[in-house]
Task: inverse folding
């Protein structure tokens, strides 16, 4: 374990592709129209596709200008190899954030006591699906060192459950921290994980009993299918290239696609459908504009 830790830290230290300075990170996210949070499974899958075909679907969205955020937990789940780094080096604003720096990130823009309160509130909200963790964090006082106590509880709790869903919660937590910085950009979760879809939807669902003048964060969940439909709808790429992307990035045709039906180009918001498609079936539905994919 110690050797793995040394290897990880060594690779991370030598790499020059990550933005790590907290003031620079704050400046980037405050000025970004789009912010991407990249999940472990999607990175691993996209990296394999890139090395086998030199195709990079996310570049059509990142466009060489929007930040992509990866937390320490995500990088550790990846094991951080040189192949990972070669793929991730394709993105120009790749942000690496340690969970231990979430509070310090807020403290760049917000005075200490207020930053501590916002950090604790964001943590409680991020951990809502894990009641024991949520309750223990709720009991932490708004005093100096509160962030250290929360990090200890976060790591200890997930270690006890074999780190299940730790990466997904790390990304959700990170997004809540960043939403405290008065950002204007949309936050996009790049993932094919059904748990993350559920965590994000429950966390950001509007509260009908809460009246607030604070703008609500703009959130998008982007599975491979969402990305594929997006490039078909918004870019002038050849039909053959669209089909190539679809066949490359849909590596699990049994994965259920969540979508709205469309009738005469009008969305039917009354029902959400989840269904599996073959690649040919999904291609035909996208091309004929019969569905709007949600996830």
Result:
């Amino acid at each position: 374990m110690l050797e793995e830790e040394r290897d990880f830290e060594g690779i991370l230290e030598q790499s020059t592709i990550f933005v790590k300075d907290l003031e620079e990170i704050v400046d980037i996210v405050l000025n970004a129209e789009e912010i991407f949070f990249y999940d472990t499974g999607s990175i691993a899958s996209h990296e394999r596709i890139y090395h086998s075909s030199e195709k990079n679907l996310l570049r059509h969205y990142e466009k060489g200008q929007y930040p992509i955020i990866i937390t320490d937990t995500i990088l550790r789940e990846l094991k951080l190899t040189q192949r990972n780094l070669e793929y991730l080096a394709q993105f120009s604003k790749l942000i690496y954030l340690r969970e231990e720096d979430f509070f310090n990130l807020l403290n760049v823009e917000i005075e200490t006591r207020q930053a501590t309160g916002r950090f604790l509130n964001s943590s409680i909200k991020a951990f809502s699906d894990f009641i024991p963790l949520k309750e223990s964090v709720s009991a932490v006082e708004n005093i100096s060192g509160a962030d250290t106590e929360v990090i200890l509880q976060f790591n200890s709790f997930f270690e006890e459950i074999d780190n299940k869903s730790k990466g997904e919660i790390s990304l959700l937590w990170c997004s809540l921290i960043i939403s405290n910085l008065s950002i204007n950009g949309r936050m996009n979760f790049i993932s094919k994980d059904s748990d993350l879809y559920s965590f994000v939807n429950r966390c950001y669902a509007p509260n009908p009993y809460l009246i607030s003048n604070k703008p609500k964060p703009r959130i998008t969940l982007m599975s491979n299918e969402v990305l594929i439909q997006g490039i078909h709808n918004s870019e002038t790429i050849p039909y053959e290239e669209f089909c190539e992307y679809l066949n490359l990035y849909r590596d699990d045709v049994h994965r259920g696609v969540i979508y709205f039906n469309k009738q005469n180009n009008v969305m039917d918001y009354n029902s959400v459908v989840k269904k599996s498609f073959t690649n040919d079936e999904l291609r035909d539905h996208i091309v004929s504009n019969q569905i709007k994919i949600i996830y």
